[in-house]
Design brief:
Strand content: 15-25%
Number of helices: 9
Structural class: alpha+beta
Number of strands: 9
Radius of gyration: 24 Å
CATH superfamily of the largest domain: Carboxypeptidase-like, regulatory domain
CATH class of the largest domain: Mainly Beta
CATH architecture of the largest domain: Sandwich
Order of helices and strands: HEEEEEEEHHEEHHHHHH
Length: 231
C-alpha cells in the first residue's frame, strides 16, 4: 500500500509535468532582410493569445505560444507584418522584416526568409512590373509596350513571380501535410518519416481543395504503398 505522502508526491509531480508541457515559449530573432542586422524594440504579439513582448538590443525575443501560432510584428520604419511559426519550439525562429517601401531582389535564398504577407505583396508588385499592356488617356487608350514585354525588368518580374508563387504553394502544403498529422495516422519511425514525406508529398492543387478527411485518406493509402515498397 502506498502511503499518503507518496500519493501526494505523485500528484504534485503529475501536475508539475502538466504545467511544464503547457508552458511553452516561442524564441526568435528579428532581423532586417536587407542589411541582415538584428532589430531591437520590435513590438511582437501572439495573435492567438494576445500576449505581447519586445525584441531586445540583440533582436532576441521570447513569447508564450506554440507551433502554428501567428505573430504580428510592428516597428516604425518597417512593414507591419505577420510570421507563421512552423518550426519546432526548440528551434530559434529567424524572422525577417522589410523596411517601408523598399524593393528586394527576389531569388530562391531570399524568398524563404520573407513572411507570408510580404510574399503576397511582392507577387502583386512583380505582376504589375511584368504587364505589357498600358493605358493612356493621351495616346488613345490601351497600347502594348514592347519594352515592358521583352525588357530586362519584365523578364526579372516574371521570374520573380514563378519563385514567389512556388514558395507560397510549398508553404501551403507544409501547413497541412505535417509530421503531427502523419504520425497520428500511421506508425512511421524517425528515419522513415522524412522518406515518406519526400516520396508522397501531395501537390498544391490537391492540398488547396482538400479537407482533413481527404488528407487522412491520402496518407493512409500512401502509407500502404510505402510499406509495400519497403518489404
Amino acid at each position: 500500500m502506498r502511503t499518503i505522502k507518496e500519493i501526494l508526491l505523485m500528484v504534485i509531480l503529475l501536475f508539475a509535468g502538466m504545467t511544464l508541457s503547457f508552458a511553452q515559449d516561442i524564441k526568435g530573432i528579428v532581423i532586417d532582410l536587407k542589411s541582415d542586422k538584428r532589430i531591437s524594440d520590435v513590438q511582437i504579439k501572439n495573435i492567438r493569445t494576445n500576449k505581447e513582448t519586445k525584441s531586445d538590443a540583440q533582436g532576441n525575443f521570447t513569447i508564450p505560444g506554440q507551433k502554428y501560432d501567428y505573430l504580428s510584428l510592428t516597428l516604425r520604419g518597417y512593414d507591419r507584418d505577420t510570421a507563421f511559426i512552423y518550426q519546432e519550439l526548440g528551434d530559434i525562429s529567424r524572422i525577417y522584416m522589410v523596411p517601408d517601401n523598399s524593393t528586394i531582389v527576389i531569388d530562391e535564398v531570399v524568398v524563404t526568409k520573407i513572411t507570408d504577407s510580404r510574399i503576397a505583396r511582392e507577387i502583386e508588385r512583380a505582376k504589375n512590373n511584368s504587364k505589357a499592356v498600358e493605358t493612356s488617356q493621351t495616346r488613345g487608350g490601351l497600347r502594348v509596350s514592347p519594352s515592358r514585354l521583352f525588357g530586362k525588368e519584365a523578364k526579372q518580374a516574371r521570374n520573380a513571380i514563378k519563385i514567389l508563387e512556388l514558395e507560397q504553394e510549398q508553404r501551403a502544403v507544409d501547413r497541412k501535410f505535417t509530421n503531427e498529422l502523419i504520425l497520428s495516422l500511421v506508425p512511421l519511425s524517425a528515419t522513415e518519416l522524412p522518406l515518406f514525406k519526400t516520396k508522397y508529398r501531395p501537390t498544391y492543387e490537391f492540398v488547396r481543395n482538400a479537407v482533413k478527411e481527404d488528407l487522412t485518406a491520402y496518407i493512409l493509402v500512401s502509407y500502404a504503398e510505402f510499406k509495400k515498397g519497403t518489404k
